[in-house]
Amino acid sequence: MHPYRTHSCAALRASDAGQTARLSGWVHSKRDHGGLLFIDLRDHFGITQIVIPAGSPVLETVERIRVESVLTITGEVVLRDDATKNPNLPTGEIELRAREVDVQSAAEVLPFQVAGHEHYPEDLRLTYRYIDLRRDKVHRNMMLRAQVIASLRRRMTEQGFVEFQTPILTASSPEGARDFLVPARMHPGKFYALPQAPQQFKQLAMVAGFDRYFQIAPCFRDEAARADRSPGEFYQLDFEMAFATQEDVFATLEPVMEGVFREFGGGRTVSTAPFERIPYATAMARYGSDKPDLRNPLLLSDVTEAFADSGFGLFAKIVAGGGEVRAIPAPGAGDRPRAFYDKLNTWAREAGAGGLGYIIFDEEGGKGPIAKNLEPARVAAIREKTGLKAGDAVFFAAGRGDEVVKFSGLVRTRIATELDLIEKDAFRFCWITDFPMYERNEETGLIDFSHNPFSMPQGGLEALNSQDPLTITAYQYDIVCNGVELSSGAIRNHRPEVMIRAFEIAGYPESEVEARFGGMLNAFRYGAPPHGGSAPGVDRMVMLLADEPNIREVILFPLNQQGEDLMMGAPAPVPSPRLKELSLALDLPRPKPGATVKG
C-alpha cells in the first residue's frame, strides 16, 4: 500500500464499501457527536468524512490535533445510513472508519478559518496566502485559471500558432507605463528593463520569418493598482501573425474567446462570432466610453441642437461656448418617486458634476425643472430624438470635450443599474476599431500619439503627408467584454519611412527615432512582412469568468494595492555590500514631517 494514499479525498464511492483505503489531507473540520468523532478530511480534489468510534486507539491522537493539521488515515470504507448521506458531496454516500492515524504535520492556531465563508481583511489574507488558497472559492479560482490557460494554448496551437518565449531581461519598451529596472552588475550604471509586453520581440519574430507566434506572456509594469489591474505583473495571451489584415486578427481571436467563455462560462450567454465592430467615434458618441458594456441597452443621443439659444439658460450657455448636451434615456422611470431623481442628482454632484437634469415625459409633453424652462417644441424634439414615450424619462449631461463624454458614459451605467436593465448571465463582446492616430495635448497644444505609436495609419504614408493629423485613424483595435478591455492590438507599421514620418508628426526628429528604436527600424530595412496581433489579458478573462470584482482574487500570489508582497516581505532593503557590488548608491526622499518610516 502506498505510504500516503490509495485514493484522493474525492475518489471513494459506494462501490468501494468494504475495502481498506488510505487517505491523506488536511483536517477541514472536526465534530464530536457523543462518543463518535467525525473529521472532514480535505485534499486538492475534495472531502471525505472520517469517523473515529468511541474507544478507538486513535481517538486520543485525533482529539488533540487542530484543524488544518495534515493526517494520513487508514481504515475501512463503510456505507452511511440513509439519514446521514450527504448529497452535496461526491463522497457523501460513504465514510472511512479510521484504524490508523499518522500526523504528518500539526497545525498551530490559524490566523483565520479555512472552512466557512467569512470575509477577512485582504492584507491578512495576503500575508497568509498559502492558507487563503486552501479556501474553496479561492482554490476553485486558481484551478479555473489553470484550465483557461490550458484551453487557450490548445486553441492557439490548433490554429497553427507556435509558442515561443521572449526575453525577460531586455531594454525599455515604449508601452506607456513605468519600467521595472534591473541593475546590470557587469555593466555599471546600466540597467535591464523587465518587459512591459513582448511587443518588439514578437514583431521581430515576424521579421525573422515565423508565421504565427503566441505565448502566455508575463508582463511587468510599475503602475498603480486598480480593481481590474495588478500593480506589478500580469499575464496575457500574446500573439502575432504575418501577412495578416485586421479582419484576419479578428477571425483568429474570436473563436478562441467565444470557445473559452462557452467552455468555462457556466451556461451563461456568450456573443457569437463575428463580434460587433464599433468604430471609436461611434463608441464615444453612443456609449460615452471606448469600453462599452453591451449588456446595457441604453444609447446616448446628441441633443445639443435642442438647447442652442433655448430658454434653458444653463445649457444654452454651455452650447454657445462650444459645449454639447447628451441625452441618456431612462425607459419606464417616469413613475419613479422624486427621491429617485434626487438620489441621482446627489450622485452626480459627488462625481464632480454640477448635477443631473432630467425631463419626465407624459401624455401632455414633459415635466421637471428643465421642461419648465424649455420650449415645448424643443421638448418634443428631444423625445423624438431619443425614441422615448409617455412614462419614460431622460437625463442630460452637458459640457465640453472628454469631460462630457466620460460623464455621460457614467450616467448611462448608473441609470441602467438603478433601473435593473443590464442583461444578466451574459458575456457580450465587441471590437472597438479605428482609433485616432493622434490627439492634441491639452497642456502643450502639440500633436501627440493617442494610442500605439507603432500602429499602421490608415492610408499609410499618403495620409500622413496629406491629411490633418487629427483626422487620421489607425489600424488599432480593442476587444471588450462586459465593459472590460481585454486587449489592445494593431496592424503594425512595418515600413521605416512610414514610421519615421509618423513620429515626425508627433514631434520626434528622425535622429531621435533612430536612437530610440534603431533595432526595430534596422530589422524592417531587411524585409519585413505586414503583420499584426493582439494580447488579451489572462487575468481579466479569469476575473470575468469567475465573476470576481477584484483581479487579485484570480492571481495565485498577488501584490496588495500598494505593490507589496506581504507574505514574502517584498520589496525589501538590500544590504550595502550588495548595492556596492551593483555600483548603486541610494538617494532616498526625506520623510515628510510626522510620517512613519518603514524599515
Summarize the structure.
ATP binds at residues 221-223, 485, 537-540. This protein is of the alpha+beta class and 599 residues long.
What does this structure look like?
By secondary structure, the protein is an alpha+beta fold. It has three domains: 14-105, Beta Barrel (OB fold (Dihydrolipoamide Acetyltransferase, E2P)); 121-276 and 529-586, BirA Bifunctional Protein, domain 2, CATH 3.30.930.10; 296-422, Gyrase A, domain 2. It has an eight-stranded mixed sheet with strand order 6-9-10-24-23-22-19-12, with helices on both faces. Strands 1-2-3-5-4 form a five-stranded mixed β-barrel. Helix 4 (136-158) packs across helix 17 (538-545) and helix 15 packs antiparallel against helix 16. The longest helix has 23 residues, at 136-158. The protein is globular, with a radius of gyration of 30 Å. The mean pLDDT is 94. It catalyses: tRNA(Asx) + L-aspartate + ATP = L-aspartyl-tRNA(Asx) + AMP + diphosphate. ATP binds at residues 221-223, 485, 537-540. It holds the Pfam family GAD. GO terms for molecular function: aspartate-tRNA ligase activity; aspartate-tRNA(Asn) ligase activity; ATP binding; nucleic acid binding. InterPro entries: Aa-tRNA-synt_II (IPR004364), aa-tRNA-synth_II (IPR006195), aa-tRNA-synth_II/BPL/LPL (IPR045864), Asp-tRNA-ligase_1 (IPR004524), Asp-tRNA-ligase_1_N (IPR047089), Asp/Asn-tRNA-synth_IIb (IPR002312), AspRS_core (IPR047090), GAD-like_sf (IPR004115).
